[in-house]
Amino acid sequence: MTDPSPPHTPAPPSREELPRLLRSLIDHTGNVAPPTYESVDEWWPAFRRATAEWEEPIDRAIVGGASADRVGYAFAAGYQSALRRLVSSLADDRMASLCVTEEGGGHPRAIRASLERSAEGAWTLSGHKMWATLAPAGDILLVAAVTGTGSDGRNVIRVVQVDRAVPGVTVRAMPATPFAPEIPHGEVQLTGVSIAPEQILPGDGYVDYVKPFRTIEDTHVNAAMLGYLLQVASRYEWPLPDREEILGLVAQARTIGAVDPRLPEVHLALAGFFTTQQRVLDAVAPNWQRVDPVVSRRWERDTSLLRVAGNARARRREVAWRRGARS
Q1: What are the pLDDT digits (tens) for 177-214?
Q2: 174: domain range?
Q3: Given 155, 177, 200, which residue is the final one in a domain?
């Protein structure tokens, strides 16, 4: 059985910090227009400055979203924060990318990247990844690779931390997506990359990293989006009840981010959160008419990324209900 608290999982966010976070958002969000950045390379140091006083990844996601001038950079804030919720040892000054998807998808049986050990004990990593978020701009790659098969015939997955600059690693930018085109995705080629034992993260690569990251990313990215939305609502003076509903959703997202993402109850709470969030987004939609057209058009174009993982979320919710019924 997998340890419910694997070594890489950080402590849950402190509940005592929630009032300070909300007060900071109320006092500072929307006072001035956020700076505009031409690329994620320009955005990254600004994100680190804006979130320097916040220790917890979920707080950094929210504050990072609130300091972004567009959905794309809010997404990046949520994504980078989510990776640090997953792997607490990641350096704060190095942008990271989780590399799972291959030609056949991201399921363990579709992974062909290999982590092999020679008779002398040396490890090498080889494989080909696609659609690795922020990989062209990043410094660190977290690569899911197969180390063999278990007694049940299934792939045994480990996650390896690789510096993008080492020999054998090539990253090519893939075509921009229709939404949030500022966020680059990469095709990663790994050819006989030498791996030290300490680069292999502890625990099961799928159970402890790939699978929970889906929930962690959902929580942190949506929290960042709400931080961004609150900034827009404040800057353009939306009605106070609408801003209060958004602030309430921020508190919900942070609370969900404080618990183990593998628990079925969390998936059910997150499903309820998404339902409430969509209801609020629909209710505040008329307010976009008072927003700068460039900003509102970006929102309309880019928020479709929140629906990308909808089918996977629905499956997790169904599984969670079935597990709950058996308990």
Answers
A1: 999 999 999 999 999 999 999 999 999 999 999 999 99
A2: 96-200
A3: 200
In a domain, 9, yes or no: no
* CB of 211 closer than 8 Å to CB of 15: no
For residue 284, the number of C-alpha atoms closer than 13 Å in the C-beta half-sphere is 26
- 120 with 80, same domain? no
pLDDT at 215: 92
- Output the average pLDDT for the chain: 90
Please report, for residues 64, 165, 176, 209, the alpha-carbon distance to residue 171 in angstroms, rounded to integers and kept in the order given: 26, 10, 15, 22
Q: How confident is the model at residue 78 (pLDDT cuts 50, 70, 90)?
A: very high
d(CA 203, CA 4): 11
pTM, rounded to two decimals: 0.91
Same domain, 79 and 163: no
**224-249 burial by CB neighbour count: b if 16+ within 10 A, else e?**
bbbbbbbbbbbbbebeeebbebbbeb
The total number of structural domains in the chain stands at 2
Cα-based distances in Å from 7 to 4, 89, 131:
10, 10, 28
We report the CATH number of the domain holding residue 172 as 2.40.110.10
pLDDT greater than 50 at residue 2: no
Q: Are residues 124 and 151 in the same domain?
A: yes
Q: What is the pLDDT of residue 153?
A: 85
Position 138 scores a pLDDT of: 95
> DSSP string covering 247-290, please?
HHHHHHHHHHTTS-TTSHHHHHHHHHHHHHHHHHHHHHGGGGGG
Buried b (16+ CB within 10 A) or exposed e, 120-142: eeebbbbbebbbbbbbbbbbbbb
Average pLDDT over residues 151-178: 95
Residue 11 lies in a domain: no
List all residues 6 or more positions away from 87 whose beta carbon is below 8 Å from its beta carbon: 8, 96, 142, 161, 201, 209
